[in-house]
Amino acid sequence: MKRLFSILLVVLAGGVGAEDFDYHLAVQAVAPDVYAFIGKTEDFTIGNGGNIVNTAFIVAPQGVIVIDSGPSLRYGQQMRQAIAQVSDKPVVLVINTHHHPDHFLGNQAFADVPIGALAETRQGIVSEGNAFAENLFRMSGDWMKGTEVQAPSRTLSAGKLEVAGRTLHLVALNGHTGADLVVIDESSGVMFAGDLVFNGRAPTTPHADVGHWLTALDRLETLVRDEGVRVLVPGHGMVTRDATPIRQTRAWLNWLTATLRESARAGLDMNDVLARPLPPEYVSLPMAATEYRRSVGHLFPAIEQEALESGR
Questions:
Q1: Higher model confidence: residue 22 or residue 14?
Q2: Residue 38 lies in a domain
Q3: Residues 206/110, Cβ–Cβ less than 8 Å
Q4: pTM of the prediction?
Q5: Residue 65: CB partners within 8 Å, gap ≥ 6?
Q6: Can you give the CATH number for the domain in which 216 is found?
Q7: Phi (first) and psi of residue 277, to 5 degrees
Q8: Which domain holds residue 35?
Q9: How many domains does the chain divide into?
Q10: Helix or strand or coil: residue 141?
Q11: Which secondary structure element, helix H or strand E, spans residue 254, and what is its range?
Q12: 61 in helix, strand or coil?
């Protein structure tokens, strides 16, 4: 009976046993010598262990460049093992695109490697990293066991970066967070857009400045058009060969802000706004209802205050 009860607890927790913390990371080739791991379009759960993010790596002539390290020590370790199945070259640099936990909490598995990020991202990881990790422990359980914050050791800035015989174009933007780094691999034409771009999943907004985000999306679309970008790897969702996910993200943000401003002008309170139905085009979008509710909490108070002040 005790054994049956234990099995039942594992099933209720999402089917993950103590011996089975395997992310089953699948290497996806997106261009010659460029690979990605594509996460689920879900929220953090015990079932997925936080594997809701896209990470990637480039096999350069003298070493491997990693783009984001995932949500946990286990993820980073398994990512490194998967990379070793593709190339025996050493990892020479890890780049964190921004300071959200699913993108940097795997850094610990790369503690022997330089880890780079924008200055504000480094600061955000230092100041908020432990709180992020505690929150993921709460949502993902023992997948996070042993995970500690490993802050980036190197400050990156916009411009060309030569790494291991590969030329990267680093684009420093903001909007999803206060510092969002986009990486373009010039040899392959692959753009790693981080969480400025979501594909087939509603965007998250806990640190968003939507006006800046929309400006950043315009810049990204220009880069896709003018800089020879042939493949776009979003922070979440499937890889594409065009700018469609940029436009999808822009459309969501425009709808969201228009809805919140209209609600504020109409004098609706937050409960009224939360009760508004999604438009038909977003009803089936993964995480749309959840992210809408979260975004109301993140963004509506300031929009409501602006409406009140403009009516004075």
A1: 22
A2: yes
A3: no
A4: 0.92
A5: 57, 58, 91, 92, 93, 94, 95, 163, 164, 166, 168
A6: 3.60.15.10
A7: -75, 155
A8: 15-244
A9: 1
A10: helix
A11: helix 244-265
A12: coil
The Cβ of residue 22 has, within 10 Å, a number of other Cβ atoms equal to 10
Model confidence band, residue 227 (pLDDT cutoffs 50, 70, 90)? confident
Work out the end-to-end distance of the chain between its first and last CA atoms, rounded to an integer number of angstroms: 68
The residue assigned the tokens 């020479």 is 92
Q: Are 76 and 84 in contact (CB under 8 A)?
A: no
Q: Is 109 exposed, middle or buried (0-12, 13-18, 19+ CB in 10 A)?
A: buried
Residue 249 included in any domain: no
Q: What values do phi and psi take at 203, rounded to 5?
A: -70, 155
Maximum CA extent, the chain: 68
Structural domain contains residue 41: yes
**Nearest to 183, CA basis, from 103, 95, 120:** 95
pLDDT in tens, 138-181: 999 999 999 999 999 999 999 999 999 999 999 999 999 999 99
Say if residues 94 and 36 touch (Cβ distance below 8 Å). Answer: no
166, amino acid identity: R
Residue 5 above 80 pLDDT? Answer: no
Positions of E strands within the chain: 28-31, 34-37, 55-60, 63-67, 91-95, 115-118, 154-156, 159-163, 166-173, 180-185, 190-198, 231-236
Which residue, chain included where needed, has tokens 């510092």?
A: 179
Q: Which residues of 270-292 are buried (b: 16+ CB within 10 A; e: fewer)?
A: eeebeeeeeeeebeebbbbeebb
Encoding tokens for residue 170? 């680093």
In degrees rounded to 5, what are phi and psi of residue 57?
A: -155, 155
**Tokens standing for residue 207:** 């640190």
Q: What angle do CA 177, 178, 179 make, to 5 degrees?
A: 90
Which tokens go with 209? 């400045």
CA distances from 159 to 98, 162, 172 (A): 17, 10, 8
d(CA 259, CA 262): 5
pLDDT digits (tens, 9 = 90+) for 28-51: 999 999 999 999 999 999 999 999
Answer whether residue 261 is part of any domain.
no
Q: Is 6 left (phi over 0), alpha (psi -120 to 50) or beta?
A: alpha
